[in-house]
Each structure stands twice: as structure tokens, then as C-alpha cells.
# Entry
Amino acid sequence: MNEQEVNQLFTTFSAGRTPGSEDFNASRLFTLLEDPFSIWCNFHAPQEEAVPEPNRYENLKIRTDRSARDGWIREEFPTVFFVTAQDDTERFKNTLAAMARGETAIANASLWNLQEHVYGGVNLLVRVNGTSRFGNYYYTIYQFKRAHDLKEHYSLQVTLLNQILGQIQGITPANMRIFLKGHTVDVPYTEHLERLQSELTFWHNIRLGKAKPEAHKPPKAAAAPWRVYANKLLVQTKDLVLLPHLNTEMRQCLKINGLFNTDDVAHASLEKLQGILEEPYATETYYNARAYLHNKPIWRNKGLFPPPTKKYNLYFDFEATETFTKDNQSFVYLIGLWDKEQDKYVSFIAKTPEEELTIFEQFYAYIKDFKNTALYHWTEYEVRKMHKLAAAAPEHAEHLNALCDICHDLKVTINDSFYLPSPSFSLKAAAPAFGFQWRQDDCGAMDSMVYFTNWLKTGNQELLNKILMYNEDDCKAMLFLEDKLKQADVLDAQNL
# Structure
């Protein structure tokens, strides 16, 4: 294929333009499946409501994955051609030129068919024998994913990319290859075509305003940059998503019966709800809606709250790393606690996996009187982690089990005791319902992992300070919520 023919191919599949908002990028399939409300916001929300929030965790994962992937590609395909470019247009042109030259492997390729409003990036194109418009060869797709299991959006993504590839080269490969952690999967092209078309139709309907998907529950009603806007919108409209325990089908049943928001549900009778929803969902939904209506907690069960108070009361939380590469390990790198009696924050930090058990011993040593001390946490993660460590390190089991024995899960106690004006019993949802605010907008659990990794590399104390502040706020949020509920004017469900 000569240069003129390559240019004609570019003209045909670029449709004389660059990708725009009317075009679908294959990489958006995850968002389309998991967070379609964000896509709706892209087209229909006021653009001034967008609030950029850098995803440091995802960016670190991408950089780490790319480095490992490119190293593997170079090792397996020594003659691989890496597509480089100044912009998207040049990348697509250079991909077509590499295909026309018959490169044995083409990394970081770009595929467009803007006539059909689709495009996307491919990790690796591999040449195989056969017949295509390029000659006596054609290309197949290799994609690399960090997950252990094949996910639906992976299959749909490579199906779309394979469809575009087939249109460009004049032959559509029967399979696409996805490399996962520890194994490889060949995905049959025809197996996912029908679902792909359905999802692309859904995307077009969202873009045209014919479909408006549901948001998720706050505080993560949508992904950035629409998270803040989506959270605010749900509260303003008193959306049914704010009611815990209900799935999409249940919310649709409420709407069919004329109940479109939390106020509608609160003003309906319990008997009406019991005619729409099965138990326990009818009762849960009714009282949660009433809690929103009055902006007060309602007793679910009296006598379970407050939890027993001891002479010494500590509110603690763990921060743990995640495995970014095959060489590193996941471990608890920070144990933080708020000492109620001392009115101070205490932290124990491990720089390496080998120091993990050391900080648990420091945690144990901080407690001077186990008989008269209570440890409060939120969810079962902390206790489960200590039991797991105890099983793996018998020499530390006595101390770890002693810590577990004085633990009290505040989430369980509060969930069993109250209906709250909150979309869930996540600490990040329940504490703000009563006025608590984390001091940092740019540091969450996932950000902390990235800050920790960068702190180890740079020694920058500011990074560690951000982690400690975030963890301290997590600890203080538990005490804050407990105190607010102790002081609250709790409504009696029987008198509503």
C-alpha cells in the first residue's frame, strides 16, 4: 500500500475531522456500564458545575501498568514499533502507516471509524498471516488489564476495537486476546456484538437526551468532574436514590405507584409501601424517608445505643497499601487512633511490609488497661485484618486477638439502632448527614496510597501530613457521629 492509499484510508475513517463529543471512545465502556450518569452530565449538566478532581490513585496505576506492559511487549516482540505522536490525529495516521508497512507488532496504536462515531486505543496489534487490504497479513488485538478476572467492559471494549480494526483492514479477526494477572483469555468477537450494539444505542440515547440514567448514592453520586454536582442535585431533588437498601427495580416500582421522591414516600402510608415493596424493604424505606422529612434520626431499636463506654475510649482506623506491581505487597502502613480521654491523635507508621507487625505491637503497647479500654472502629475490616495477621503470625496472635476482643463496630451498633437521614451507613455518608466535614478535598483512601508511595520515594513530610490528617478525620468522624446521636432528638417510630 503506497502513501496515497494510506492517506485515502485516513480520510475515509477520520471522516475529515477529529474525534468530538458525538463520537464514542471504547475506553468509556466502563463508565457507560458503571456510571452512565456521568456521561449524561457531560452532555446535559451545566458545564460550570464541573469540578476537576485528579484521580491520583488511578493515574499511578496507569503509569505502573504501562511500564510493566511496555517492558513485556519489548521482551516478547523485540521488533515492536511503538506509535508516537504529538496529537490524536498524528497517532491514527502513524498507526495506519505502520500497518501498511507490515510491522510485526504495533504498540500504543489508535483506531478510528468516525463515519460510525467510534474510536479507541489499542495496547498492541500483532501481525498474523492472512489476506487484508494491506497484503498477505492482517492484525489482531492484544489488550492488557490489571485485574485477575475478565470483566464485562473488557470484553465489550475489545469487541468494539476489533470491529473498527476489521473495517480498516478489511478482515475482522475471530478473537481478541486479553492478558490478565496470571492468565490470558481469548474473547470471541461475535459473542459480544449484540450487547455492544445495545450499549452504544444507550449511549446515543443519553447524548440525545432520550435517556437519563440514575446516579449513584452520595457521597459518590458520579465520578469527577461531576461528583459534587451529582451529590448536590440528588439532595435538591430528594431523589429516591437517597433511600438506602433499594435497587433500581424497587425505585421504579415506587415511581409507577406515584412516589417520585423521598417526600412522596414519607407522606405515603406504611401500608401503601407494604403493598409495593416486600419486607423488610417497605418498612426500611418508609422510616428512612421519614428521617429525611424531619431531618432527624428515628429509633429502629432502643437499648442498643449508645455503646458501652469504658474508662479509656479509642477510635481507630487503618490505612493500607495495594499491590501496584507483581513485586510489591499489600500491608497496613498506618494505624491511627483518636484518644478520647487524652483528646489527641496518635499514629503508628510502617514503611515496609516487614514493619507491619511492629506497628500492631505499638498499638497493643499503647493500651495500658485492656479491661477498661474500648476500641471503636467502622466496619469489620480492621478486626478481619487483625485475625488474618494473627493466623499468619502465631507469635503475635495473643496480642492481636487481645486487640480484637475489645473492639466494637460502631457501624453495626448505629445501623441496628437508627434510621438515619443518610443514603447509606458508610461513614463518609452518615457523618456528613450530621455536619461533619473532612478537612481535605484532595485526600481520600485511594489518594492516601499514592501519597504514601510518593512519601517513601521523596521523604516529603507534607505528603505524610496529608495522610495523617485524613486518617485523623476518619477517627474523629466516628466520635463526632456517636456524640451527635447521643445529643439528638431521636424520633420514636411508633409515634410517627
The first helix runs from residue 3 to 14. The CA atoms of residues 383 and 404 lie 6 Å apart. The longest strand covers residues 118-132. The chain has a mean pLDDT of 94.
